[in-house]
# Entry
Amino acid sequence: MSDELKIPSSQVLVKHKKKLQKPKLFKVILLNDDYTPMEYVVKLLRAVFNKSESDAVNVMLMVHNKGAGVCGIFPKDIAETKVFTVLKMAKHDQHPLKCIMEPE
Ligand code: TYC
# Structure
């Protein structure tokens, strides 16, 4: 055995710069129709999106007058659940209410 000096092999520290991804946000949008009663839309906005009476009325009127309105902006999984809940409620109550989500 030689007496040569054992030099520890140099190690390279590799820094993986994985930036934390900001969660992508989605708008939940209610669409107008000619049949769903205004009071029902207000009730639904209060129940599903926790809106005050006046905020719910404003969103409902926006949808009624412009054809569509944003109910809220959420991370993907929450937005999906909101859309699902709106459609389920509307179907249960036999209203043709439509709700979609789209990237912010
Ligand atoms: N346009 C409906 C009416 O006149 C009211 C309404 C508002 C319907 C918002 C759907 O998402 C909606 N009764």
Remarks:
- Residues 26 and 104 are 5 Å apart (CA to CA).
- The radius of gyration is 26 Å.
